[in-house]
Amino acid sequence: MSTGSWILLDHVVALLSIAAWFAAGVTLALRRTRLTPAVLGTAVLVTLLRVGTVGMLAGRGWWFVQEKVLLGLPMLGAAGVGAVLLAGPYLLAAGRGRTVGRSVRAVVAVFTAAYAALAGLVVTFLVGYPLTAGTALITVSLVCAGALLTARVVAAPAESTAAVDVAPAPEDRRAISRRRFIAWTGGAVVVTTAGAGTGLSFLPAESVTRGGGPGRPSRAGVSVADLRGADAPAPGGTVRRHVLTAKQATVRLPSGREVDAWAFNGQVAGPALTATEGDLVEVRLRNADIEGGVTLHWHGYDVPCGEDGVPGVTQRAVPPGADFVYRFRADQVGTYWYHTHHASHIGVRKGLYGSLVVSPRAGQRADEQVDLTLPVHTFDGTVVIAARDGRTEHPAPPGTPVRLRLINTDSDPHRIVLAGTPFRLAAVDGRDLNQPGEVRDVGLYLPAGGRYDLVFRMPDRSVALVVDDDRAGGLRLRPPADAPAATHVADTSGLPELDLLRYGAPAAVPFDPGRADRHFTMVLDRGIALVNGRPAYAQTVNGRGHPGIPDQLVADGDVVRMTVVNRSLETHPWHLHGHSVLILSRDGTPSTGSPLWVDTFDVRPGETWEVAFRATNPGIWMNHCHNLPHAEQGMMLRLRYAGVTTPFGGPHGEGATHEH
Ligand code: C2O
Ligand code: CU
Do residues 641 and 620 make contact, with C-beta atoms less than 8 angstroms apart? Predict the structure, then answer.
């Protein structure tokens, strides 16, 4: 069973235990002495079952269980034992037919166990990992407060009848004043603990984490504003000049459907930028009328930091009427894309994106080659591939070499199937794989932001590219001799997934990931956290939201390892700017295929990924979830080279110039 399934099962068992303890409390309070033992027994059993599910999860990693093992289960365990010890004898006596009144203590104890069970689950959902002393104190005090309140409610009728009927007997009076004393001191203790817990929670976090490396700057301060790209092409290269104007537009798709878009030069996808290795790419970004501002981020392209297009970090967002020129050398060959990085959860969704493809200088592609760049984007539920919705046909004579460059510009993964031919997955995220073998009848999952290059030689029958198992849409490559109707595509939904960690052949990598200079762990979850200064039910990294997540500090030349753990029930496509990372392992299973260099990798529910890279591109780099709404909801932080500063304060990040 996958860790994700165990997480889900554990939630279900936790819910059942809450229900069972509350049911036990209610039946006991109603003096249903025959029913209560069965319900109480169930509560105990489900609680023991919970110990089992938590134990299983613990085997998958401490991150998945920390708050359960340190707080939830001990609290529930203690309260549960108390409940059984107090309610047990009472129920036994009742079972023997002795007339018994209501046992206030037993009722309170059983309800306390119910509160403890509930509190444990609430902590898991609202706080998660890591558990802090503040959270623990607040939780325990809330459960105690619940117990005190319950005691008041349950005991109240007895008190009032006594008061109305006759003057209380001396022993009753003693009991009442003892109860008052307990209530008052209990209340005081609860309030103090809760206060201490809240105080602890507001302690400021470290603003930087060093991942076990030194903290001293390795160089005197450099501003990102000075980390700009080259201004001339490599010898033999040319300058590729483009102007991209961001503007609101109503775009008409081939089906006739109109999209209320934000577009570059009036089209979605934006202009397909191409270059040859060594060229200088020079793009003037103009903002016509996008209110909040726009930028251009070169996704997966390891440009100098000043060209990275992150508002508030590498530049200021470009307001309406203004422009900004990006310049960098096309040193990386392959399939990439660009998009706005300002309020990108809106801007990219509405259409501010396009492709960037760089071809190798040597071995120019043959003219007869079919080479299609296919950004896949969803506009209000309609999948648009390149600029077309519905089904697209493309002629391809048999024997032609074909390259399909798929780009996922959405925030969720797409499932890609190529039907009708064997093929190779030649490149992932722009980087060639080593000896990618021929495959057929497999499904490929393309992470949000990711790219796959599929290559094959055109057979003499049609080939279908199917996205998300929608056989009616997608792309058809058709040899002129093949009848259009001949393109029957069998159901693709059952095809197995190609595991990229076992695809292709291993090869040497340029550093030893086993000797990392820094190691950062990011535990992804949901929880209550501050996002841009406001409390929210955030998408969190180590329990915090942007910009309150500590910067990761690295030094030029470091080998850096990252462990990314997903505690949540959603997929998080993790994306680091400015570097590609080498995949080391998933859930402890090492990558044994081709070295896999990516800029975006899907961390599915319950998964743990280990990646590494060498820090050779100084700057301040965003490190975030590429489900862009998740990033907006807090799942975003910065990886910062020691000594690099930014002069750009802004809506998406303060100066970040401090060093600790
Ligand atoms: Cu394509 Cu920061 O993202
Ligand atoms: Cu995410």
Answer: yes
Assess whether pLDDT exceeds 80 at residue 217.
no
pLDDT tens digits for 193-202?
888 877 777 6
Ligand 2 centroid to 617 CA: how many Å?
Answer: 25
Query: CATH topology of 224-363 equal to that of 366-498?
Result: yes
As for ligand 1, residues whose beta carbon falls within 6 Å of it are: 297, 299, 339, 341, 449, 575, 577, 622, 624, 626
Closest ligand to residue 526's CA: 2
Question: How many A from CA of 341 to the centre of ligand 1?
Answer: 7
Task: Name the residue ranges covered by the structural domains of the chain.
Answer: 3-199, 208-221+507-657, 224-363, 366-498
pLDDT band at 185 (very low <50, low <70, confident <90, very high): confident
Which CATH code, of 2.60.40.420, 1.10.1240.10, 3.40.50.2300, 2.40.180.10, is assigned to 224-363? 2.60.40.420
Ligand 2 center–CA 357 separation, angstroms: 26
* Cα of 28 vs its chain's centroid, Å: 44
451 and 427 in contact (C-beta within 8 Å)? yes
Provide CATH code, domain 208-221+507-657: 2.60.40.420
Long-range contacts of 292-295 (CB under 8 A, 24+ apart): 292/317, 292/342, 292/343, 292/346, 292/347, 293/317, 293/318, 293/319, 293/320, 293/342, 294/246, 294/318, 294/340, 294/342, 294/347, 294/352, 295/324, 295/340, 295/341, 295/342
Domain 366-498: CATH superfamily, name plus number: Cupredoxins -  blue copper proteins (2.60.40.420)
543-563 pLDDT, tens digit each: 999 999 999 999 999 999 999
pLDDT tens by residue, 144-178: 999 999 998 988 755 444 444 445 566 666 766 77
β-sheet bridge partners, residue 378? 383
CB burial readout 299-311, b (16+ within 10 A) else e: bbbbbbbbbbbbb
Instruction: Pick the ligand that lies closest to the CA of residue 604.
Output: 2
Residue nearest to atom 1 of ligand 1 (CA): 299
The pTM of this model reads 0.92
